[in-house]
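Changelog entry: the Deaminase record was regenerated in this release. Current contents:
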Amino acid sequence: MRLQMVPRNVVFSTLKREFHYEVSGLGLDNEEFVYKLLDRRWALSSPESKIHQVFISDKCKEGDGVIRKVSYKNNPHPSLGDVMVERNPQQPSFYVVRDDLRHPLVNGNKARKLDALLPFLEDHSITDVVTCGGLQSAHTAAVAVSCSERGLKAHLLVRGEQPQILTGYALISTLYGHVKYVPRSLYAKREDMLLKHAEMVAHSGGSVLHLNDLLRNPFKLHSLPRDDISKFNAPIGTKKVAIVNEGAGDAVALLGVIRLVQFLSQKHLFGNDQKLKIVIDAGTGTTATGLGLGAELLGLPWEVIAIMLADTVDGYREKEKSLISEFCSSYQSSVVKHNSSRINNGIVQWVQRTLPRKFGNILDGEIQECQRIARQTGILVDPVYTLAAWELASKLSFEDEDAKVLMIHTGGTLGMFGLAQRYKSCFQGLNESE
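Regenerated structure tokens:
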């Protein structure tokens, strides 16, 4: 299978011409800037995540021909830090950040993006959150569960028609949040749709706030004592409604991902001088951008490689550009001097999936491959998102003996239920699989 990769020189030179990132040239040095940036309340009690190491070996002959097939073995307690074992080219391996284990109902990447966002909304006395997503959106489920856990109300606009039987993320979204199904023609105009629904939720006397407006001076609010923050509270009974973009694709969502990068760069884990290739599946591209930005701000020799699943390379490049622009506008006023940038050349390498397809579709044999990986390693991947990252991490572990390969397992377990409902034939015969 041939991996279709976007040439770095073409993509990044174009980015350099079209957009000049203004993140570096800090008034403080980068380490101080990141420390200040991350000195805030978080939704997650800790940025920690379990790290596993998956070893790969060639498998067998099948039938009359020789088929090169690999098998996997999971080590849930790998040696890291100073005692990290040097790579054995005869038995390649890659590491897996088990963010899928963080919460039974909230995907790992969603939890990271909500890590700073939820306390930020609380500090502004937000009472209700309006967002949107597809029928089996992990984002809407994560917002519904996380808001409910913190006493906020989640209003979810879901594209399409309500199914006869709810399952997977659709069921969780409905159990925890207030769901409204929206025709595709209206959903296509997301901004108008979200604003109109937020205004309806706010009623008369309430207010609707966009995250961009709230982010104008984020350091100021987080530096206030808790008692002083209370002055931002709305009168009792008044609704303050915040609109969160689809997939939490907002600059504040980058902070939780940067926090993850800081955690992984600790000396007892991967350190700050280890060459590392980080692989992640990309929906909106927000998590990948956060990983790249975190690595850049901390000066890490890490390469972020994101598999494009839901858009074209131009779309992802534009999203990366937009997020970093928003990040600069939101956070540089307090600590960043407008100076030359180190992020001119782009921070994410966007690559095609081995077998591209329309977003959400699965191919014959992919459910069985997920089953085979689960049986051999105890790690469940899904065919829409994380199988793509797993395949690329496996491939890269054979190709580069100098770099460690690290896959961020974003989750997706509940998505299997929705897929089983939609692709019944693909799930038939699993008991007969090897």
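The chain is about 40% helix and 15% strand.
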